[in-house]
Amino acid sequence: MRKNDKEILRILLDDHIDTDKYGLGINSFRKIRQDLGLERSRRQNHTLASIREDIQALREIFPLAGAREMTSLLFHERNKSVERSLVFEYFEVYESKLMKERKARRLKRRRFWAAGVNDLIAVDQHDKWKRFGLALHVGEDPFCGVIQWLRVWHNNNNPKLVLSYYLDWAEEFGYIPLITQSDLGSENYGIANAQSILRQWHDPRLEGSVQHRWMRSKKNVKPEIAWSQFRRRFTPGFEAIIQKGVTAGWYDTTRPLDVLVFRWLFIPWLQVEINAYVNRINNTRKRADRNKVLPHGPPNDIFTCPERYGCLDFKVKVQPEAFQYVREKFAPASDPVFELVPPIFAQYAGQAYIEIGSPQLNGANIWNVYRDILQRLHGITTADGSQDYVDAVDEWQVSESLQDQGGEHDSVPYPLIEGRELFGGDEQPRDDGSVYLGGVNEGWGLDIELEERLDQMDEADEFEPDELQGGLVFSEDEEDLEGLEERDDW
Questions:
Q1: Choosing a second label site near 281 at 20 to 30 A (CA), which of 5, 256, 342, 357?
Q2: Kind and range of the H or E run holding 124
Q3: Alpha helices in 178-254 (DSSP H)
Q4: Position 481 pLDDT exceeds 60
Q5: CA 161 to CA 189: how far, in whole Å?
Q6: Confidence (pTM)
Q7: Phi and psi dihedrals of 141, rounded to 5?
Q8: Same domain, residue pair 67 and 202
């Protein structure tokens, strides 16, 4: 999260060390950090020469990364802590044209209001890679900006699959938000049904209500922003890698064997890269913005410790048996949609991968590995006792054909649970014209009790006006902010 020594020490003392028995001072902590080899940018003392090779390698995968993004990439991907001023200097020397292009961009400001962490989770699908046979899905907590999941698969419109993403995340943490939010579409029926049942399971007063908000006017804004950032920060380099195989004729989505090998090899590799992207985004403090009312800080830090930022947490703890019930009812693990490829095919592809030496995959070699596996699988015939493999490919091809023609696999597996909808939203604006889209008090927003809790948290804040706290400087002097981004402890 790029926190300075004082911030890290404060978290250790507050959350992880029994201060009645033990103590830890700033000097001792710094000695421990240095012994672990965790040096800051000044001690690492990088130069243009020491970062040039790394930036050139990163530029192949992240061609549009600016100074802020490149600094983060160097830290998370190359374990190098580099001052942003040095990255700016590198750009001025080696990438002056790209720097002018980035400065020409103009931001459009939009306003979003949320009540606290776990007020809602907004979900959305992304179809820009459908031409490659890849489909993406995201879930985000809009209040803190943390991406809860970003998944790639060969499908993103099956409600069982989409629900499994949500349940995987919720079961890991043991709780759910007050409501979920999505665009209209049957692919979101699973999440809407499960969310309503789980809320009613633990609060009988909600019986007969729908704890999911449908965005009927194309206003599921926060996930769209996440996709916009993904398209700029992650997509270009990886899309170029995939397009290379299509252009060369190595991968054709009309050839079943091509599709199966591509899925088996590329989807797990891309998911690893996407997970690294999500981890980097969630642990990177957003750009300082004086117009922003929501808290400033690394999204993961705000999400896990909202009280540290003077925020409320609305999470609803869920019993394990409740998770098990909705999973078995709406997203059973036996459904074929959860198969990357047919199991028999996966066995033969895995054997072929072992035979070529099980190479570590990266953007430079993945197409060579794909072609080697494809060549070996082409040689499998019924004559050498591989009838089960051939049958699996044939059955898969028939199943995919039925789905493309709108067959039984395309139908909605269960109806949408009906009930009274949440208050608020576009249909019920407040007296001042503002709109609340969350789930506090079934959509009405903060009440007097919750507002008093927020006031008490504000009163407990003992920081001086100019003290650096959580990445936000409390100062009315605009000049105090100049150059702050270049400080080692920002």
A1: 5
A2: strand 120-126
A3: 189-202, 221-233, 235-247
A4: no
A5: 11
A6: 0.80
A7: -90, 110
A8: no
